Backbone:
């Protein structure tokens, strides 16, 4: 028998274990879980919460939850050890303790995690897959030194790499720096989990004694945040996709419903072009000011367009968040979202998509013949690939 394990449940810390070595110098290991500590504290205070395996899915008082997490200190960990050493048998006899032989806590390994629970888990899964696709180079020295705020030179030990490991259908992203590893994965389909595990504190020129816990917490949590900052571009792409889909689908705000703002609809394009005429008006614009320019962009006369028809269009823009009503008036102003979206959609449609489609279509005369030749060559290469794979009918 080389080691003795004691699996315990503490009133303040929840489940943990102590492992004692049976031969000199009688090393011991204390393993505790900060999430279990927080769960036990919340149960003592009677604050409702919902667990997410090794984490918290939701709680009634998030600020108190954060305060409890911050309150897990080296002093409390030391007190836990001393309390249970008085209860459990261990190699040091009372005579040994009187002679000054006692256990001192040091940090063998510490894991610091950031769990971001997602309101729409499917969107989170799409985001994480996009993160993996666009950040395969995040383990390179130049990227790693940005995450850990440490210079990486040729003499820096360790492998600098990015690994994607899949268990079943759940992928995880792994980044290494010396004896430290960052793991990121989609936890139980509900949250994005980023966790930094420090195996060797001297990698950061910090000692192993337990009083260094605050400095190690700072390094680990900052590494988690910097990794997310590096991945922010992927996140922005997902947010932009979400906003684009919201505009191209019907929306409902309370009991009010508005039809979709389809990108290629001439009426919608005319609405966006009309909005660009009013963003600098300090007092906003009324219904009647919108009718004439909208009809002009449509190539129609403004007389047949009734005020009710314009009210319908204003209601669409308002429910989609592109305009807002000035309180206690019948006037509207363009929102920041409305201005930027209208500017982007109109410029993209008028200057890129509409004129850019002509060189691609073989039946339309085009001035840019080089683009058409490239598309013809691409089509020929695809047909050759299909023939080589024997996929033709």
Residues:
């Amino acid at each position: 028998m080389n080691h003795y394990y004691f699996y315990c449940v503490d009133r303040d810390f929840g489940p943990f274990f102590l492992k004692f070595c049976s031969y000199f110098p009688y090393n011991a290991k204390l393993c505790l879980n900060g999430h279990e500590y927080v769960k036990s504290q919340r149960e003592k205070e009677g604050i409702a919460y919902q667990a997410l395996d090794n984490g918290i899915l939701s709680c009634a008082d998030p600020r108190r939850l954060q305060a409890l997490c911050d309150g897990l200190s080296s002093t409390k960990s030391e007190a836990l050890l001393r309390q249970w050493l008085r209860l459990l048998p261990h190699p040091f006899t009372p005579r040994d303790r009187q002679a000054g032989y006692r256990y001192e806590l040091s940090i063998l390994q510490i894991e610091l995690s950031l769990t971001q629970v997602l309101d729409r888990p499917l969107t989170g899964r799409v985001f994480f897959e996009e993160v993996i696709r666009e950040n395969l180079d995040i383990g390179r020295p130049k990227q790693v030194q940005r995450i850990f705020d440490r210079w990486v030179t040729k003499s820096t030990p360790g492998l600098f790499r990015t690994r994607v490991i899949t268990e079943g259908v759940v992928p995880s992203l792994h980044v290494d720096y010396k004896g430290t590893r960052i793991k990121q994965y989609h936890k139980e389909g509900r949250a994005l989990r980023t966790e930094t595990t420090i195996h060797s504190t001297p990698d950061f020129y910090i000692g192993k004694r337990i009083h260094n816990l605050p400095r190690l917490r700072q390094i680990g949590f900052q590494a988690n945040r910097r990794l997310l900052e590096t991945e922010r571009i992927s996140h922005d792409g997902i947010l932009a996709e979400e906003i684009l889909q919201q505009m191209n689908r019907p929306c409902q705000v309370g009991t009010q419903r508005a039809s979709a703002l389809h990108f290629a609809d001439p009426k919608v394009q005319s609405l966006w072009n009309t909005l660009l005429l009013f963003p600098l008006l300090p007092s906003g614009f009324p219904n009647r000011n919108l009718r004439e320019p909208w009809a002009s962009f449509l190539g129609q006369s403004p007389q047949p367009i009734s005020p009710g028809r314009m009210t319908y269009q204003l209601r669409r823009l308002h429910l989609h968040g592109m305009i807002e009503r000035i309180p206690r008036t019948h006037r509207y102003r363009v929102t920041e979202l409305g201005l930027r979206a209208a500017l982007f959609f109109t410029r993209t449609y008028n200057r890129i998509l509409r004129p850019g489609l002509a060189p691609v279509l073989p039946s339309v005369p085009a001035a840019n013949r080089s683009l058409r030749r490239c598309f013809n060559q691409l089509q020929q290469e695809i047909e050759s690939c299909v023939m080589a794979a024997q996929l033709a009918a």
